[in-house]
Fold CMD domain protein.
Amino acid sequence: MTGNADIIDLLAGIEPGSPLAILRDARAQAREHAQRSFEALLEPTEPGSFPVGDRYAVAYFTAVLHQDEPAAAFYRDLLEDEDPDRVAVITNVAENARGTGPYGDYREPGLAAESVPGPVWTPDAETSTALGDRLAAALAHTHLLVFRPRESSPAALQGLADAGWDADDVVRLSQLVAFLAFQLRTAAGLRILQSTNLEGATR
């Protein structure tokens, strides 16, 4: 668990009292909402049938797919603390599932010409055995949302249903992946702001 640390500040390397910290404080409501979203989606007090360890595993997998090294290290550490036996497996499958996107086929005829082919990642039998069918299906869904969002559909959710995911947890999983995309991009943007010396412009 992460305690009271502001996760975006942590991922971006923002120090308390720095110009970027002050800039974020100017939008206190946005900061608070992002932090509360992290807590609700990754560290809920009552995780129910979507355990915290599985949430960290999805987050680590997502960070590797985004090729975000600070976030990958952060979520790997959380997974290591919660469920160390799965770290090596997630690391291996995430590295093998990485790519460049988004891509996929549009269902709408008017957009068909903009479709871009790309690989569909699905867990093999060894991965499903190591992680369990439920988490393996969650990683396949995560890969879909990260790389092939244009192919999202009710039919694409069947793998989750077959692995035992109910409708509420499917929503929570999808919300988690969407939040992570926001969180990682925000932190990456703040790191760029610091590295290009634009931070001085906020003073």
Notes: Residues 43 and 52 are 6 Å apart (CA to CA). The domain at 48-185 is CATH 1.20.1290.10 (AhpD-like).
